[in-house]
Design brief:
single chain, 159 residues, alpha+beta, six-stranded mixed sheet, globular
Length: 159
Amino acid sequence: MKIEDLTSKSSLGVLVEGAQWGDAEFYGNWLLAAAKAEAFWKEASLDPDFAKKVDRLSVLTIPDFGMAATFFLMGLKDNSSSFVLNFNEGEGEGVDEFVMMADMGFFVRTGRGYQMAIPADLNLAKVKAAALTYAQTEDDEYYLHPEVVVPSWVWVIAG
């Protein structure tokens, strides 16, 4: 498979790199942090004022950070330490969670893409702020724009 960076609009996505393959301690702690983010999300969703501000997220996707974290780990299996998250593929599985998780510190920007990280000081306020930031990308046609929050590259994937 050949991946080229082009200016034509094709497929929008990001390269995500994990920790060293087999680093069970990192991945275990990363999954525990995702479970914590999920618990904070559920708590935040009970606040009617907050729920109203992020209603588009709940209508479109109902974020599940635990499920998304598992999905991302499964993406590592093909290359052992990295994957490309395609923003346009199908329904863009995991994209909404990725955008919010990057804002929470689960993914940090590197020169080549994003590196998985264990977020520092994850709390309810950070989860709410990440959701609000993403919800504010909604346009007049009610679409959310992940590329506004998470800088990405345009990729052409040719067989």
